[in-house]
Amino acid sequence: MPHITVQMFPGRNDEIKKNLAEKLAKVASEELGRGIEHFSVSVEDIPQDEWKERVFNKIVDPDNKNIFVKPGYTM
Which residue ranges does the record assign to the 4-oxalocrotonate tautomerase-like domain (predicted)? Predict the structure, then answer.
């Protein structure tokens, strides 16, 4: 049921991505009180030159009420 999407710069191998995905699913499962089988996680590589437009501008938009942890960096 819940799906978690991670967006990040390219450069990490599939093993690192899989480990991250498994840990995120585990924490979410514990926090939400649902079995881990209910969770899915995807990892999307976003090229650095596309980050501001595709990701950053959306997450710092004050009207975006879906972002609960804002970045501590500026662009």
Answer: 2-51
Q: What's the CA angle centered on 25, arms 72 and 27, to 5 degrees?
A: 70
pTM value is 0.90
Decide the pairing of beta strands 40-45 and 3-8.
parallel
19-29 pLDDT, tens digit per residue, is 999 999 999 99
What is the three-state SS of the chain?
CCEEEEEECCCCCHHHHHHHHHHHHHHHHHHHCCCHHHCEEEEEECCHHHHHHHHHHHHCCCCCCCCCCCCCCCC
